[in-house]
Amino acid sequence: MFSRDRWDEIIEALTANWFRTLLTAFGVLWGVFILVILLAAGKGLENGVKQGFSGMATNSMFMWSQTISKSYKGLPKGRNYNFKLGDVEAIKETVPGLEIVSPRNQLGGFGGANNVVRGLNSGAYNVYGDYPEIIRQQPMDITSGRFINYSDIEQKRKVAIIGEGVKAGLYEIDEEVLGTYIKINGVNFMVVGTYKKKGSGGNVEEQQKEIFVPFTAYSQAFNMGDVVGWMAITANDDHSITELKNSVFDVIKTRHSIHPEDDRAVGNFDLYEEYSRINGLFIALRLVAYFVGTLVLLSGIIGISNIMLIVVKERTNEIGVRRALGASPWSIRGQILLESIFLTIVSGMAGIILSTLVIYVINTLLDGMDTSEMMFLNPTVNIGVVLIALAILVISGLLAGLIPAQNAIKIKPVDALRTE
């Protein structure tokens, strides 16, 4: 039940020495501020890192052939082999739970010899022979024209989709790109589209310097036959590629007479596993933020507890008079606990408001910047964290006032009245 006299007494007690109260409240304010800022910073870093996976099929792996390290069925170790188109079909038919199996071939690369020429301009670029599904596995925006389609695959059309970096290297500014021809290792391909890769990080600029052509046209133009350089494999939402990849390896080992225990014969990069590790890292960072913030908050709570002990000591006479006039122990205890909780909550709310303002300012600054390649994006704290912080404050306020309240009710009225 609301009692104005009680609240007047609380305000008077806390403002009797306002400077001491302000310093005590700052400890809790700072603890809550640090907790919220650490959580927001961790979320901002997580958003920035995950921006690099934006649009990417994270439940994927990339697989390539390597040197065989174990002899098997009379075949020696140290031999090399290549994936075949038949392997792709066998994997699709044998391993349930897979959504996409994309065979790929690759030519040239950054830092190598100039493999792409247009007029007097030339450059060293990665050229990929792909199927249309690859755009669902690797994020890119088609900025003009179109991507590879199955008509290109079936008719073995020599068409190419080039990155914005390739366009900048081979074409003049504002020059029309679509319908023109580029020469890849001496073979002409018509440009039908341009793209820009999504994501963030230092390699994004180089990812704009790639060229995609139909897998069949690539194989025909560069005499690859049915050889597959490597594969991009994606599991469906009901399965993890990490759980399915051993079944995929078994298919390859069986078809190419590789020892079942030869783990070096098939190379792979498990994107889902790496993504899971990143998620685990950010979970750990959140736990660290909670731990550090709680320790800082605890120091503020200890300060409040100490101040309340001093306040009880200073009000010994008052407590003695109230006890002599018939005040119950619960009334005395409740008064001290209420003062402690009030001071803690007010200090904590001030910390939440201050941290919210700081986060708002940071987000306002980021909104005016190009964050596409930044590792820090949209630092936020959800309402659940605020509610948890409020719950911690209430509990902390009770704990901070508990010992002083117990001390207050232990004082005998006669002894309290004698205290100077």
TrEMBL record:
This is ABC transporter permease. Its main location: membrane. It comes from the Bacteria. It is found in: Cell membrane. Keywords: Cell membrane, Membrane, Transmembrane, Transmembrane helix. It is a multi-pass membrane protein. Pfam families: FtsX, MacB_PCD. Residues 291-413 form the ABC3 transporter permease C-terminal domain. GO terms for molecular function: transmembrane transporter activity. Belongs to the ABC-4 integral membrane protein family. The chain crosses the membrane at residues 21-41, 287-312, 341-362, 382-403. The keyword Protein biosynthesis does not apply. Residues 21-247 form the MacB-like periplasmic core domain. GO terms for cellular component: plasma membrane.
